[in-house]
Amino acid sequence: MFILVNLKTYPCDPVAVAEAVRDVDDGSDARIAVAPQAAHLERVAETGAETWAQHVDPIDHGSNTGHSLAEGVVDAGAAGTLINHSERRLKLADADGAVRAAERAGLETVVCANNPAQIGAAAALGPDAVAVEPPELIGTGTPVSQADPDVVEDAVDAAANVDPDVAVLCGAGISTGDDVVAAADLGSGGVLLASGVAKADDPRAALEELVEPL
Ligand code: G3P
User: Considering only CA atoms, which of 37, 39, 6, 40 is closest in space to residue 21?
Assistant: First the structure.
């Protein structure tokens, strides 16, 4: 299972969380990566944790101001990027451009979507993976795998209909090892989560608990 921990703009210590991600990843069968804010990418990548960007823009080198260039994100040490997160929505053409920019720079991609219908569109953009996250469950602590298992199963089917090689992650409210197991049982290849780790009193313990049943 792939566990991608999005730190959003939570006021956690990104380096401490990254060190925990690195150590728990080393000691488990799961693949764990961390997505800090853009300004923290380099410091986080220096820990040796697999580091992802939260976003890249559909741009190339040139006359762009205030954007996130895929090559810049790679220079900072990122291995992959989220695209079209529910808190960083893009128009379809821009999501497509962002996937192309990420590919050009050699970044792995996860395109996010709200529901199974959008997952089909996201998979058609040709990313490495898609992630289904019902926005109303984000940050609630109520796992999508429990509150709305059909969403996960339908997303897995929708992605497979477009491209059987595209992995499907699910996210929103995931915080325990049981949630991760439930996600796997529904056909998901991983989970995307944030508050369960970034807002935990002890992020390392939270990560250990996530991988414990795997
Ligand atoms: O990117 C992860 C996400 O939006 C889910 O957030 O806090 O419900 O795990 P959370």
Answer: 6
pTM of the complete model: 0.97
Is 85 considered catalytic here? yes
Q: Can you tell me the mean pLDDT for 61-68?
A: 97
Q: What is the ipTM of this complex?
A: 0.98
Cα 158 to ligand 1 centre (Å): 21
Which residue among 50, 133, 153, 209 is the active-site one?
Answer: 133
- Whether the per-residue pLDDT at 145 is higher than 90: the answer is no
| CATH classification for the domain delimited by 2-211, as one of 3.40.50.720, 3.30.450.30, 3.30.200.20, 3.20.20.70 | 3.20.20.70
Whole-number Å distance between alpha carbons of 154 and 202: 34
CA of 61 to the centre of ligand 1 (A): 31
Q: Where are the domains of the chain?
A: 2-211
Retrieve residue 123's tokens: 């998979």
